[in-house]
Amino acid sequence: MSLSSLKTTSLQRFSLNFAANIIAALWMLVGSTRAFSWVKPTFFQFALFAVLALGSNVLFSWLAAESGSVFNEQGLVSYLIWPVIILLGGIILARRSGNQGLLFVPVVLWLVADTLSALLQSLVQFFGHQGWLPEWSYSFLPILFLLLFLWQTVALLWIFSRRLRAPWWERIIVLVGVVALLTIWQNNVADQPIFKQIPVQPVLEEAALYEQPRLLQQALNSIDPSVLGQTDWYFMGVAGFAGQDVFRSEIMHARELFDVRFGTSGHSLSLINNTYSWTDEPIATKTSILQGLKKIGQQMNTDEDVLLLTLSSHGNKDIIQLENTPVEMDNLDAVWLREALDSASIRWRVVVISACYSGSFIDDLASPTTVVITASAADKMSFGCTNTAEMTYFGQAFFAESLRENTSFTDAFKDARLRIQEREGFMGFEPSEPQMVIGSLMETALPAFEQALFNQRPALLNDSVERNKDDITSETILVVE
């Protein structure tokens, strides 16, 4: 059937034409020529869907943009090229067929499909911001978005080739060529979105440069010696990746739990990589970590005291990431961490690692006097390191919930693992499979160490009663939470 015989009749009401065009686009997307029966290609419909398509693409680009992005005119021009090309195609088809009603048919169908596609992409992007998507899906999303862009254009060409009764080999050649062209185009303009982050060379303020040595020394000086004849627990937390607040927040929450509930105040240290804390907290580097461990080792009684060391960051197999731009840092590896603990003469250790693939640290850190707890197995990712979260899935389950409700690390770990499994299952994530390994000597000594740790709560509350009755209320509320 030729295009010259194609008749398009508008309905009386604007809203009915609007709905009919949406139905036409849906038929087009499934490859059906019924789209031609539904499409209402008036100028006003063209203008409306041009605005809607542009607006929905601006919305998607805004949702997908990184923090600090600004409007990019070149990205807008890159988008507008395609509806202009399709409009020109409609003009050519209308003149060749002598059917002026065909003028807006291709561009209206394409714009409606593009609006629907951009709105769907915006919804997916919003879900991603909320942390409602499986972790594996983030690597697949760019491919999905490219396929949606290809689909609407290929579907448009497909229904026109069917209408023209083009030979199958012509259809294949045209479609393959268009897919190749569009894919190359999209890859070349991928760095020109409508909202684009302007590269900014990281700058370290002079105040931070001079403040860091003082902050580290002040933190080290605040670590008190242990009391001879009793078991004292020490806490050291390391937030490795500066680009997301969740790691700093997790370490600070864990330190607060141990200082307030478990009595490690005066025996705790946190080293934080965070973009906004250069003048407030000592940063986490191999150098500062080693100095922190050595200071704690000097203040501890080797036979009586225990260190809980927790690290929160991005990870890979055998690697914990240390990143705090503009300083170039070496990442942590398990062998180096084991040697640092040994050189600090810290005998009794509980090492908790919240990172992807953190189970790969177990073999090198394990010893008869060590407990190693990891957020994932050696070949698994862990989850929850989003920009809006206060703690990762593991940190929330282990520190914020399970340690508050149990009186042993084993029970707390088992409880946390169940909570994580439930949350990952609900979100559709692949199980992270948290791990816990207890050394042979530690297995015997741990119950006594745990008694010293978990019995700190009543002692702290009794001290608070003596100091200030008003403090009882605030302390009790904090513990109950």
Task: Describe the protein's architecture and organization.
The structure is a single chain. Strand 8, helix 12 and strand 9 form a beta-alpha-beta unit. The strands form three sheets. The chain has a six-stranded mixed β-sheet, sandwiched between helices. A two-stranded antiparallel ribbon has the order 1-2. A two-stranded antiparallel sheet has the order 6-7. The chain is α/β, with parallel strands linked by helices. Helices cover about 55% and strands about 10% of the residues. It is built from 17 helices and ten strands. The longest helix is centred in the N-terminal third of the chain and has 27 residues. Helix 9 packs parallel to helix 13. The radius of gyration is 31 Å and the shape is elongated.
List the helices and strands and how they pair.
Elements: H1 14-29, H2 35-38, H3 43-64, E1 69-71, H4 73-97, H5 105-129, H6 137-163, H7 168-188, E2 195-197, H8 206-221, E3 233-239, H9 245-260, E4 268-272, H10 286-299, E5 306-312, E6 315-316, E7 319-320, H11 334-343, E8 348-354, H12 362-365, E9 370-374, H13 393-405, H14 409-427, E10 435-438, H15 440-454, H16 456-467, H17 469-480
Parallel strand pairs: 3-4, 3-5, 5-8, 8-9
Antiparallel strand pairs: 1-2, 6-7, 9-10
Helix pairs in contact: 1-5, 3-5, 4-5, 5-6, 6-7, 9-13, 13-14, 16-17
